[in-house]
């Protein structure tokens, strides 16, 4: 029997895991909100009218890509430059989508696309912490939508406020730093063994060293370097645990 | 100057880019085979992406490494990191960091 979209949405919102997902966005939402506010202000300050800024915020829904293309749009760069920049900034999502697939491959194409559009970095991190094993479970869908809707509201409400209050909020205050701190908190919460520490230190160094690259490609360089470093650190740890000294210690304990 | 039509076309394209990049590997019905080492390695990608977005925001301005320690971001960063490992709360980390950053940045111009 076919159920309507409305019935489906209702059963998702009634699920307790919807609220777990929403709650776990928790403190991070404050940082996301500050970043959304700054993005809203930035859209108007780079010359978009209020209706166009609203349209951009509600349709594009990708903070880092918006902030990257706004200066290009303001100087009237060609469309392909604007789009190509956004693709480069968003390439990290292509990598994340391969991991979403292991949880949501069984959904219909339309539902998969909806999940994809609303999936941001922080939702991904929370989801992977709760479900580290790539195995579909019924509670994952309500959990996802709880987190995704919270993220959407935490971004869109302040972004809209920023559009209307653009003249009252100077960008020089540096409110966007709250967004950096939020991501910092998320990053620190992911450091759990030597390999993750090594990977993130390598990523930080590479991102700064390669900063001069155009189109924010330094982020991709950092991801490639960190994946290599993480795999190497895992391997070294495995080899070290097979050394005779380590084995003796294991046997003694 | 940007015409409204141009902005609307640009935004529709950008929205499609958001959708397609985030959906990329979820679009095909059959799974695209990825080598095993890559699958294992990709679990470092989200953490690397976060680190790569944050690091330049903290230690660079205008594309250059910051040359002065009188920068409001540094004390805020130090306090936030210590606080996080002590309390494990992201909300508190943001609040403390901003409580240190804003007065130094707006008040003293650091």
TrEMBL record, chain A:
Q: What is a biological process (GO) this protein takes part in? A: L-valine transmembrane transport
The primary location reported for this protein is membrane
Report how it sits in the membrane: Multi-pass membrane protein
Q: Which UniProt keywords apply?
A: Cell membrane, Membrane, Transmembrane, Transmembrane helix, Transport
| One matching Pfam family | AzlC
What is one term from the GO cellular component aspect held by the record? plasma membrane
Q: Where are the transmembrane segments?
A: 25-44, 80-100, 112-131, 143-166, 173-191, 197-229
| Compartments where located | Cell membrane
The UniProt family comment states:
Belongs to the AzlC family.
Name by which UniProt lists this protein: AzlC family protein
Q: Which organism is it from?
A: Comamonas testosteroni (strain DSM 14576 / KF-1)
TrEMBL record, chain B:
The portions of this protein that span the membrane are: 6-25, 45-65, 85-104
Report the Pfam families cross-referenced here. Answer: AzlD (PF05437)
Which species expresses this protein natively?
Comamonas testosteroni (strain DSM 14576 / KF-1) (Pseudomonas testosteroni)
Under InterPro entries, the record lists: Brnchd-chn_aa_trnsp_AzlD (IPR008407)
Recite the UniProt keywords alphabetically.
Membrane, Transmembrane, Transmembrane helix
Q: Which domain of life is it from?
A: Bacteria
What name appears for this protein in its UniProt entry?
A: Branched-chain amino acid transport
